[in-house]
Write a structure and sequence with these properties.
Blueprint lengths: L4 E3 L8 E7 L3 H10 L6 E7 L6 E5 L2 E5 L1 H4 L2 E5 L5
Antiparallel strand pairs: 1-6, 2-3, 2-6, 3-4, 4-5
C-alpha cells in the first residue's frame, strides 16, 4: 500500500490532510507547533492569495496563512475521505 505524502504547499485547495512530521528544528519547529501544526492534526487548504503565496489553511478551527517556503516544511498525508 502506497501512502500519498507530500509537503503542505502541495495540498490542493479544498483538500484535507493529516500532518505526519515537521521538517524544521529549534525555534522554527516550536513556532509551527505553537500555531497548531503538530503531527496527527488535520489541516485543510482553504484558498490561495491572488499571487498564489501565501495560502490559507484551516487547522483546529483557526484560519492561518503560510508562505510556501514555510508550508513546504510540513509533511502531510492526504485524507482519503475528502475529494
Amino acid at each position: 500500500m502506497c501512502l500519498e505524502t507530500f509537503d503542505l504547499s502541495c495540498l490542493p485547495v479544498g483538500s484535507s490532510g493529516t500532518i505526519l512530521s515537521i521538517d524544521a528544528c529549534g525555534l522554527e519547529k516550536d513556532r509551527f507547533l505553537d500555531l497548531g501544526f503538530a503531527p496527527s492534526v488535520t489541516v485543510t487548504t482553504l484558498f490561495k492569495s491572488p499571487a498564489q503565496n501565501p495560502t490559507a489553511y484551516e487547522i483546529m478551527g483557526a484560519v492561518l496563512a503560510l508562505r510556501s517556503e514555510d508550508a513546504c516544511k510540513i509533511i502531510v498525508q492526504k485524507d482519503k475521505n475528502v475529494v
